[in-house]
Amino acid sequence: MRNFYIIIAVVAVTGGGVLLHAMRGGGGAAVEPVELGELEQQELIDLARPAGVHGDPDAPVTIMEFADYQCGACKQFGLFVKPQVDLAYIETGQAKLVFHDFPILSLHANAFVAARAARCAGDQDSYFEYHDRVFHTQEDWAPLSSAIRHFKDLAEELGLDAQAFGDCLESDRHADVVTANMRLGERLGVTGTPAIFVHRGGPPLVRLGGFQLLDVREAVEGGGEN
Asked: Which of 23, 45, 163, 174 is the most exposed place for a label (fewest CB within 10 A)?
């Protein structure tokens, strides 16, 4: 995994950070980005840990996804395109998929807490199982004023430790890491989701023009364009 971080460090990236808000109002679950202050590039890279790594960590190709759980196109990629990518490249050991959070709060009020909820499930080694359930039920939780109860219910449905999950979700755990993911995405030029990149452990970091299987195939098998 170290070469994954090295490639990000050597990519020429633009400056800029996410607009940060108060972590939460009146206590409870962190639902918005937290203040991180000024971070050096390596500090940001170290903090912006991916939410999940799917496949062999030593696979030669990395497919890097920045996504928003409340985004319809991200749901399409996660539930319909990703399984095709799994069959073609993940299960064959050719590539691994690395998931980074990029909630767009100006459009999706529940996206930040959804990202935290999935990471809370990841604490119990169930990240991608929970990832799929969040996307499958997107239409149920997206319009809610608070999706906390829904996310707790999903954890129970998956047989997770409900107390541990609830303690995680009803706190600020992972809020700093999700915020750092957002900053990293912005430095890489992400403005919308899903944003997919491919690299082979060194330059170049290829940004895909779309998010269908054909786009992934062209980058993985053909090298793609910058």
From this structure: 163
